Give the backbone structure.
Amino acid sequence: MWSDCAGKCTEKYAWGKLADELMQTLGIAIEFELYGACDSTRHCKDFVISNYDPSHFADDIFRRNFLEASFQCTKCVRMCSLPMTGIDIYCCCFPCGPWSKLGNRMGLDDPDADVCWQAIRTIKHMKPVLFYMENVMDICSTSRDTGGADVRLIKKFMQQELGDTYNTMTISNTSPIQHGYAAEKKRFVLVGGRSDQVDENQLRRNFTELIENPLPVTHNYWTFLGLDEIADEIADAVGELPSPAAACKIHGSGCKCGVDPMILCDQHPCRCAQCKHGGGAFCSWRVKAKKYLADHGLQEAAADGCVTYIQALELMGLLGPKSPRQRNMLNVFARLPAADPLRSTLMIMDISQAIDRARPRCDGTVPTMGVNASMWPMRAGRLLDVSEMAKMMGLDLSEVDLRSTTQSQMRQMLGMSIHVATAGFALIGLLAAAGCRPQPLIAVDSR
């Protein structure tokens, strides 16, 4: 295997799981060896080397000389041979920033998008039997002023470079939900198999069958993680007038974080330049929150004097986030009809996002995890910890070496990586097509 833009090398973990299942269920022995990997992030390099020990690791995908068949290996600290044969599987989850709603959305005009071209050149050079590439679904939309969907231009370049040596297929909207996980992370996947080893029709049949026969989601995120809920008295207090004793405690806390975003709190000050200089009315998150209240008919909740979600938590000794933006967001979301009743709600959202992008979900699935995601299930009254987020992404942290990885770094790697189940989906379809060569037509004498 060779993995570019490796991140935490999800595919190696996923394929190890698949190898175990193939042996246990079918008695088929298959070993996945990570020969080379590349990522520009130091903690990704440390994680991949400590867990999978590839023969080579590079930190710059562009430091490759295809004419001389060499590349700069940071693990070997020298130029090493770039293989032209022997790589069975190549994968590249190239940067999503050029297309993601959280990026600059310049599409192929973004310099980071050049990684895609380099990945295709690498496929041409290495000639792997199988490959897959992955990105966000927004790559399928027109994102360039010059017109034309970027996917069409990518496929055109792939055709120019690879010709008929590969059979390829694009798959849109594949999600962990289709593979049994209550987690949303829709992705665009481009798979391919070398035409001397993979029959195009078989490739398409495999993935069509996988798509038409999804695995059932048997657990929502709450039961899957086995979360504990906040006390009923906390949930029932939100949106109700406080008792005299509760009102006294709320007043004594000095915190003014409520549903109204325009009220500044000295206990939890906003650090933006506008708020520091007394211009809270022009603070971007406050303006967005005020608009959100108006759009969802919650203006009265901003001034009704009822107990807020954060107040209810902290009255019972639980801790809310320190950020005034996040405190306000949780107070607002708790008053949405979709969150009622709080004692049984499945509402969960990423509070690292702005209020108009957090998009709380109430159907038992976890929203798409981006880099630095902070998932808050309202009924739990706390953030999901890193191990819980990893579990929703298909990764059991007890099975990997974390000595070189901090929690913050793992959170970032989870956000930038493909879901384990999606990687497994891609590999199953590809492996099932490997060796299915197209049969030559045999002339039959009609006499």
Confidence is low (pLDDT under 50) at residues 144-148, 441-447. Residues 10-26 form the longest helix (17 residues).
